[in-house]
Amino acid sequence: MSFQSKLPNIQTNIFTIMSRLAAEHQALNLSQGFPNFPSEPALKALVSEAMAAGHNQYAPMPGIPELREVIVQKMELLYGATYDPETEVTVTVGASQAIYNIISSFVSPGDEVIIFKPAYDCYEPVTELHGGKPVLIQLRPDFSVDWEEVKQKISPKTRMIIINSPHNPSGSILSREDMLTLESLLKDTDIILLSDEVYEHIIFDGEQHQSAALFPGLAERAFITISLGKTFHNTGWKVGYCLAPAPLMHELRKTHQFNVFCVDHPMQKAYAAYMKEAENYMGLSSFYQQKRDYFLDLIKTSRFSFTPAKGTYFQLLDYSRITDEADTEFASRLVREKKLAAIPISVFNMNNADNKVLRFCFAKTDETLEKAAEIICSI
């Protein structure tokens, strides 16, 4: 058959490549961002209870009411933000499906979408899939934003800006000053903000997450996307949600109902019950900071250099003192020869700029981190 690809330049993503290499070489996998420790027994028990109670048929299209209620309560507790559970919250199949639906609902052919690089790998192709034009802005070497460049790149065609904080893959965060600057830039425009906040609870060293919900001028135009899989160590369950003002959410649900219609019913029941206890998510920052600090202490004598991540469960390591190899080549050799998998950062940058940096996931057991550190220190 003859056909024209809508995404002719998209190849197998780097997460699949590195995880496959890790499996082939029986390597420690610190590449893909998933925990290797068990889910909470209490949360798994709640899923079983929901199944046994008969919650096994279609859930309501926007999500079960009790889960949307507890999400609204969480936003009030964390950010003092008010959302209507009926019209401003939609439960999705993870944050990626929410992001897809947001772009699908609002980006038309010729629309421009501003994306900061390095970027999570779904933003750009989904924009292109819907005929939009990605307008790329490379973050500074310290992963901060050049807001003057953003101002220059905003045009009458700009339909959306996508931000991600805490930031994957760098582990950096946007400050209050950053958000106020963005709020000022978007004032009196019709630009939609897509704020990817999946690591909202994983932020370190006493910093506070600057959610778009905290800033009225952003909240009035923002979709906020969240991953419960990231929060509760169950990435395979694929449950997330998004929040937005009612007129925006109304459009999103038009797409959502034909994309997946609804999300796993017993999982929603379990999360609704589990999230009623705020301590089940409030302690996440200290949990992961302990892992970050433990990992960095283990590798402090290595030849890698680093700046401690400010958020997420990813740590960048600079290997420029070790080799001049391209990061993709070094990452591949690290798997083959040292049995350790990481992610090369160049694949997320504009023009695949190679700064000799690899990303390691520290959402692992202490035993795994110790084994990985032993390898890192041996290089």
Short recap of the structure:
By secondary structure, this protein is of the alpha/beta class.
- Multimeric status of the protein: single chain
What is the CATH superfamily label of the largest domain? Type I PLP-dependent aspartate aminotransferase-like (Major domain)
* Number of E strands: 12
Biggest sheet, in brief? 7 strands, mixed
CATH topology value of the largest domain: Aspartate Aminotransferase, domain 2
CATH architecture of the largest domain: 3-Layer(aba) Sandwich
Strand line-up in the sheet with most strands: 2-8-7-6-5-3-4
Helix/strand-derived category reads: alpha/beta
Query: Any idea of the CATH class of the largest domain?
Result: Alpha Beta
What letter string, H or E per element, gives the SSE order? HEHHEHEHEHEHEHEHEHHHHEHEEEH
Approximately how much beta-strand content do the residues carry? 5-15%
Rounded mean pLDDT score:
96
Shape: globular
Low-pLDDT stretches: none
Amount of helix? 40-55%
- Total DSSP helices: 15
Overall structural domain count? 2
CA-based gyration radius: 21 Å
Distance between the termini: 50 Å
Question: Notable features of this structure?
Answer:
alpha/beta; seven-stranded mixed β-sheet; Aspartate Aminotransferase, domain 2; 2 domains; 40% helix; three-stranded antiparallel β-sheet; Aminotransferase class I/II-fold pyridoxal phosphate-dependent enzyme; Aspartate Aminotransferase, domain 1; 379 residues
